[in-house]
Amino acid sequence: MATGEAETKKGPVRTCVGCRRKALAAELFRVVLEPGGVVVGGNRRPGRGAWLCAAEGGPSEDCLTRAIRTGALARALRADRKELRWQAAED
Ligand SMILES: [Zn+2]
């Protein structure tokens, strides 16, 4: 079995914006920037997204905190980090 870094048979590989770990998109947690703010849990939502390691019930707090602190999240979402607001996904 090859363990390449790009596309695999299991699906696309994405990089966590917190710790830069590469993993299958299915194993990561996506956040999406929408007009009302950043939606957590938007794996199936359209729009500009960023990927974070998954923890139980949501994105890894370590990775999320790091991504916010370093500005990597804002950069990935092409947003001003001061203007990043959070809203819960309805689905
Ligand atoms: Zn991570």
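^ zinc ion complex. Helices lie at 61-70, 72-77. The two ends are 35 Å apart (CA to CA).
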